[in-house]
Amino acid sequence: MSVIVFLDNKDGAFVKSSLEAVNYAANIASVKGVDCIAVSCGKLSNEVLELTGNYGASKVVSNYTENADNSQIASLVSNLVESNSASIVVFSHDFSGKAVAPRVAAKLNAAIVSGVVELPNFDSGFTVKKSVFSGKAFANYKVNSEKAVLSLLPNSLDVITTDYKAEVIVDSSDLGTAKMTIKEFKKKGGEGKIDLNEAELVVSAGRGLKGPENWGMVEELASVLGAATACSRPVADIGWRPHHEHVGQTGVAISPNLYIAIGISGAIQHLAGVNRSKVIVVINKDPEAPFFKAADYGIVGDAFEVVPKLVAAAKALN
Amino acid sequence: MKILVCISKAPDTTSKIAFTDENSKFNEAGVQFIVNPYDEWYALVRGLELKEQMGGTVTAIAVGGAENDPIIRKALAIGADDAIRIDSEALDAFAVAQEISNYASEKGYDLILCGKETISYNGAQVPGLIAEFMDIAFASQAIKLEINGTIATIECDVQGGTEVLEANLPMVLSAAKGMAEQRIPNMRGIMAARTKKLEVIPGSGATNNCEVVGYSLPAAKSGCKYVDPDNAEELISLLRNEAKAI
Ligand SMILES: Cc1cc2nc3c(=O)[nH]c(=O)nc-3n(C[C@H](O)[C@H](O)[C@H](O)COP(=O)(O)OP(=O)(O)OC[C@H]3O[C@@H](n4cnc5c(N)ncnc54)[C@H](O)[C@@H]3O)c2cc1C
Ligand SMILES: Nc1ncnc2c1ncn2[C@@H]1O[C@H](COP(=O)(O)O)[C@@H](O)[C@H]1O
Fold first, then answer.
1. DSSP A135
2. CB-closest option in A188, A201, A299 to B161
3. CA–CA separation, B10 vs B26, rounded Å?
């Protein structure tokens, strides 16, 4: 038995969403009365590997193959599932999970439910709730197969840690030949910028800002708060901001703890990417802007007057 | 270049999301269905661009009942040469991918292009499943694709940036924003679509490993708390002390 969970890493450390997945997998394991085994691919230090224990893994299986592609990682994970007769495999529904989880499901003839937001319910069989319609609803899925692959929506559950250290097991198995070779990694944004996908706080602005030259105050507010910056689609389309900042139905979907929307009307396609944020703040000069319906806090006012005041207040706080 | 583009139908982005039959079914009343934007704007259009550059064919494929025919016609109007519909009751991603890979496995497609996810169920599952069933490369969340002979160079969104990858054809790719620009079908395309071939074939009885048993809506927001613009500073203290968000 045991629950298996895969972790992605970047720059020698685990990705935050992966650690959330470990915590989720450990919770399932404890409900089932089995242990949680983490699996990692790529070179990482022992201290980093042991850290998976803080999130609930009893062991971490580490294969040092560098730059493995999704088919090799899928072999690693599914072999571990087979050798532990595991029936539940957990991923984060992040970039790595989206690439690897479906391959694992195909190999294991398992049901795959992606973007889950709650622990499964085993009261009558196996059901689990996932986010659908871009955060506008949830669907409860019933798993009918023997094995299941679940991928957890990032930032959807609170993480509880201990100071337990996981036992590190080095796996030196050959992962077979890669089907793709990595030629280059291009880092996004500037040095020291917070990645939108990982950010807990996001400051976002739209067409209400009138032009790219006015983004200074947005950047400043983000930097004082330690937030990532984002934007609405038209702003990225006309080139005021880089494409990777575009959030919404057709851009990035995020679920930070705080989303501050400045001069964004709140079109349904924009909301689809941000409505899973825990707290939403809307700053718009039009009291009728639809975004206020989705907001927790609102200021009806001119961004050019309001934002500098927020920057000053946030600075005073630090 | 033989290209297969997987298309799915999705409720129009402005649709009201509601449920019927004691929250067990999506309420389709008054809902306008469109081609899933990632499939149409990015996968299909990039497929057509590659065909225009190098010659070949673009076939659209959808798994499901006759209710998919209008979106298949739309794909034909935009420029796909022909289309297949696998008439199957595939309910989950696993079954859809099995149907597509069973169909495609003997046909010698060089490229199978999908969208990165459907905007309805937000799965991001079908393309990776197809790739594994067919035992070929899978570029997930791709924003660029170039073909040189039998080698594909792809750029994909990954954690913290993008990755440039190389793979041998055939391969599966899931397309994200950046891959291509949306194309609006013209009158000629719409007319031509009527006479293009849409072949309907029976499903191969793929397995459904999971099913939806109920829907729910998120708890409604308790309402917006307004802060006076002359007193904007107060917002920062509310975010710190009340919302505990900063
Ligand atoms: C299929 C489809 C997919 C789409 N996908 C996306 C998506 O993924 N993401 C996305 O964002 N959009 C998407 N859109 C576009 C979406 O419908 C809206 O057009 C877009 O979100 C509007 O951007 P905006 O709010 O920046 O601009 P606008 O709608 O022009 O709103 C600007 C706002 O700024 C306010 N304002 C103006 N001046 C000031 C000031 N001085 N101070 C304060 N407020 C001010 C105005 O009152 C207004 O509310 C999509 C559309 C379609 C059809
Ligand atoms: N029923 C279907 N028929 C054909 N292609 C599909 C179907 N469902 C999903 N796809 C393809 O798989 C992609 C990802 O879908 P999903 O995994 O359901 O989010 C879509 O963007 C389509 O390209």
1. G
2. A188
3. 12
* The predicted structure's pLDDT at residue B159: 87
Residue with tokens 């990595």: A182
DSSP alpha helices (H): ranges in A212-291?
Answer: 216-225, 233-237, 268-274
Rounded to a whole number of angstroms, the distance from the CA of A168 to the nearest CA of chain B is 24
Q: Quick check: CB of A304 below 6 Å from ligand 1? A: yes
Residue carrying structure tokens 């003839």: A109
**Cα B42 to ligand 2 centroid, rounded to whole Å:** 13
Residue with tokens 């048993």: B213
- The β-bridge partners of B211 are A142
Q: Which of residues 34-93 of A touch B (CB under 8 A)?
A: 69-71, 74, 93
**High-pLDDT (> 70) share of chain B, %:** 100
The single-letter DSSP state of residue B53 is H
Nearest to A127 among B14, B213, B245 (CB): B213
CA A307 to ligand 2 centroid distance, Å: 42
Q: What is the pLDDT of residues A7-45, one digit of tens each?
A: 999 999 999 999 999 999 999 999 999 999 999 999 999
At B140-166, the pLDDT tens digits run 999 999 999 999 999 999 988 899 999
Cβ distance B119 to A133 less than 8 Å, yes or no, reads yes
Secondary-structure percent of chain B, ordered helix, strand, coil, rounded to 5 = 30, 35, 40
Query: Which of these, A209, A231, A221, lies nearest to A284 by C-alpha position?
Result: A209
A228 contact partners, CB below 8 Å, separation of at least 6: A193, A194, A195, A196, A198, A199, A201, A202, A203, A222, A256
Distance of residue B195 Cα from the nearest chain A Cα, in angstroms: 32
- CB atoms closer than 10 angstroms to residue B227: 22
ipTM of the complex: 0.94
Neighboring chain B residues of A309 at a CB cutoff of 8 Å? 232-233
Name every chain A residue with its beta carbon within 8 A of the beta carbon of B163: 182, 184-186
Q: Residue A235: phi, psi to the nearest 5? A: -65, -35
Helices (H), chain B: 37, 45-54, 69-78, 93-104, 126-134, 187-195, 233-241
Q: Is the dihedral of CA A151, B126, B44, A181 positive or negative?
A: positive
The Å distance, Cα A185 to ligand 1 centre, comes to 32
| B165 → chain A, closest CA residue | A182
Interface subset of A 284-303, CB within 8 angstroms of B? 292-302
> Which 3 state secondary structure label does DSSP give A132?
strand
Beta carbons of B43 and B5 less than 8 angstroms apart: yes
What mean pLDDT comes out for the span A110-134?
A: 96
Burial class (CB in 10 A: 0-12, 13-18, 19+), A74: buried
